Structure formats: structure tokens, C-alpha cells
Amino acid sequence: MENRSTRRSGQALLVWGLLVVAANLRASLTGVGPLLDQVQGDLGLVPAVAGLLNALPLLAFAALSPLVPRLAARWGPERLLGGALVVLTTGIAVRWVPTASALFAGSVLIGSGIAVGNVLLPSLIKRDFPTRVGLLTGAYATVMGGVAAVASGVAVPIGAVAPGGWSTALGSWGLLALVAVLLWLPQLRRAPQPAPQAKRGHRLPWGSGLAWAVTAFLGLQSLGFYVVVTWLPELLQDNGVSAARAGWLLFLLQAVALLTSLAVPGALRWARDQRALAASCSAVLLLGYLGLLLAPGRALWWSVVLGLGGGACLVLALAFLGLRAQDATGAGALSAMAQSIGYLLAAVGPVLFGLLHTVSSGWRAPLALVCLAAAAQTVVALVAGRGTVRSDDGRAPGRVPPASERAPSSG
Question: Which of 337, 340, 335, 306 has the alpha carbon at shortest distance from 320?
């Protein structure tokens, strides 16, 4: 009885740790967009360069994600994640300094820390909670989205009243990262040695068409999200919306996404596969982008529509990393591949969007870009929503799990 109680306490502590880590995976990024106009004015940044503020973390995701499985096999995923949280906290602190060099350097460190968390969370969930992949993925996506929404909404008000203005608004999220470091310390003390299969199973599934479909779905979804959180406030301000209201509209979008994400785990549990769900939610995103393109004056409505589609697509993209894998090692390998290539694709979005805005002196051309991305995502969803990724030689990258762990019944 005591061992069972201790085990349950340990699992509860792990779940809390994972959720607090998830709370830090977007807040330091989504708070940038509402402040971008002030940052550009104070530092003299042109739109394409300003787009790098959220593109640099994505490039860090792309560069580091393939290395995470190998590093986790060497040091253990718990210790690696703990180190990543320290890097993330340092990056936010560096970005508190109101200079362009500190802002960009901090963004790289932030991206490096988040990259590790992005890859390891799906793998840890698949390893420790194999029959609750959909539920816990929905929970961590909800926490991640909720805190990200708050970060967008309070960015301008904090910047208006806090000493240091926008730099304090960006740097204050280091306190939440520090809390995550402290809550993760118990996992460092009890971190297990990496299993032998983890040392053999770091090969990424480059030869799998399904893995490429999952990668494309995650990348296109992320491209749209990071374009929105970077540029939507400025787009709205150019259409007569105040900076504070634009920030709260971005908050509304993410709050709706948060509510939508709560419904997805139930759909994952009962659906035979996720093709129809993923395609329909991607089509909702396309509708929202088309709305901003054709009727920008109805920004309130399109924010709600984008939240409806975006929240579901985020949970699906994250869940695919576990549902399409056969075990924790496979989930880690698929996660590394999908997030490496996917975030490389996503990193192009904010920069290209800003460049198109500069070249065309308007928003129609850049909005057409995200419409095309959403249309492509709708097509890719029909492939990414079903099947199991296998290793290059056709065998599972580790043991064959029992039926209760296999996708999609693990949702």
C-alpha cells in the first residue's frame, strides 16, 4: 500500500512538473507580438528584421530538435529537460536588457530551451502514461495555450505601467521559468538511467512518408500560429485598432483556442482515426485567414474562428507525435524529426510575412501566404491522421507494445 501511494505521489508530481514546463513553452514568444510596434520604434527595426524575434526561436527548434534524442539517451531526459529550463530562464533574463543584441541573443537562448521541452514532453508522456496520451497531451496543450494567451493580453498593460516598459513586459516571464526549474528538481533526484533501447533508437524516421506528413502538418500549423502571434496585433492596428485592444484580441484568439483544445482529447478517444477531424479543423483555419484577407474590419469574428481551428490543430499536431509512434523511443524520434523540419518551415513564416508586407506595402500578399499554408495543411491532414510510423527497415524502433498502448486507441 505504501509503495502504491508513493508511486501515485511520484506520478502526480511528475504530471505537475510536466504541466508547469508546458506553461513556459509559449508565453515568452506570444508576448512579443503586441509589443512589436513599440520594439520596432525604440530599436529602429524594419518589419523583416522584427519578424526574426519569433523566427530565431523557431530556427533554434529546427537546429536542436534532431539532437535531443541522442542527448537524452546520454544524460537522461529528466536531467536534459532540467538544463533546458535553466537555459530558458537565462534567455528571458537576457532579453530583459532593452537592446537589439540582447533581444536577439535572448531569443536564441529561449528557443534552445523550448526546443528540448517540445521534443521531450511527448516522449515522456508516451513513456510514463502510455494509455493517457490524448488526455495528457490535451492537458499540457491547454496549459501552454492558456498561459500564452495571458502573455498576449497583459503584454501592453504591463509595458505601460512597469519600469522599463516593453523590456520588463518580456523579461517578467523569467519568474515563471524559475518556478518550473524549482518544481522540476525532484525529477532530477530520481531520474532513471536511460534504457538500452533509447541508445539504439535515436534514428529519425526520414524514410517514412507518414512521418513526413506529420512533420508537414506540425510545420504548417506552427507557421500560421507564429505569423498570427507576431503580426496580428500590428495588422489590427493598421486597421484602426488600438495597441491594447489588439493585444486583447490576440488573447481572445488564444482563449478560444484553449477552450477548443479541451474538446479534442475526447474526440481522439472515440475516433477511429483523426483524418476528418484534422482536415476539418485545418479548413476552419483557412476560413479565418480568408476572413482577415477579405473582411479585415470583422477582426473580432475572425479571431474567434482562428481560435477554434488553431486550438484543435495544435493539440492534434502534438498528439500525432505520440499517436503515430509505437513506443516512447519512436515518439521521441518522430518528435525530433517533426519539430526539426516543421519548425524550420515555421521559422520562414514571420520573416516572409514581414517581408511581403514591406514589399507590397499592405497585408493582402502576406495574408495570401497563410491562406496557401492552411490549404496545404488541410490536404496533409488526410495523410497525417492515420497509421503508425515504423523505422527505416520496417520494424518498430523498440519493443512491440501491447494493444492498449498502440495508436489510436491510446488517445
Answer: 335
